[in-house]
Amino acid sequence: MDMGTLKVGTSSWADRSLLASGWYPRSANTPAGRLAYYAERFGLVEVDTTYYAVPVPETTAAWVDRTPEDFTFNVKAFGLFTGHGAEVAALPRDLRPDGRDTGRVRRRDLPAASYDELWQRFREAVAPIAGAGKLGVLLFQFPPWLAHGEPAKRRILDAVERCRPWRVAVELRNASWFDGDNAPDTVGFLARHDISMVSVDMPQGHESSIPPLLLATAEPAVMRFHGHSPEWTTGDKEERFRYAYRDDELADWAGRLRDLADETDELHVLLNNCCAGQAQRDAATLAALLGPEADWPNRAARRRPALRVVR
Q1: 120: which DSSP letter?
Q2: Which segments in the chain show pLDDT lower than 70?
Q3: Fewest CB atoms within 10 Å of the CB: 167, 181, 190, 276?
Q4: Domain limits of the chain?
Q5: CB 38 within 8 A of CB 113
């Protein structure tokens, strides 16, 4: 097998708790400086801000300019595209319904022409990243209420087709997608349409819980770590993701990720326990464990292919 690539990074480089955590040195005191500092340490990042608003192309072009040639951005889709709501103020002024500036809006509140135009502007924002060869996937994180079924599949395919030829990854957040016979149906559906299934590590036992299945349905394979906060369904955003992975947990995951990397040409690993720099610390630990010097469990059992780890 040819050498595969495994990239490790975090979900966001500029969330509020990270900026207040002290992870960035005082010298990295501008948006440009912080992205450059992050990109010196990791080869992959997930762009979270695009979920809340569609940036202008000048912004994404600046991200490209501030990062190395082989850096990768996974871009999260705007919330309206996945069935979530959005703040009216996040929409371009000329696309706001009824001239409103406040409140929230859903897809049904927009005329079809405005919704299509919003998609066009999202594509224009992504274009500088893709044109520079730095786009990994467009990440669609669907809401917990989107249950397994044909209408849900049609919703997913509508979003995917609007993104082609760019690669797409889908994170499903309703347990029904993996209940019983639905599991092979879900995996087959994603594989047939060349959609990467996002594997997750997350709290179990909730309606939104997805089992930690490490599967590659398309290139690249994508794994996101949410942590195991006991306040997953009750806390605010920071409390839901407040979790520090133990070294033994990360060591166990490193072995499993190597196995997944055997099955794909490219694997993206994102730490999403974004609370006061914990994701960055855990990502650095995991990247070190995935390095060639790591003592993999049962490494003598079979010859592993060469793997290029980019942190």
Answers
A1: H
A2: 1-3, 229-241, 292-311
A3: 181
A4: 4-310
A5: no
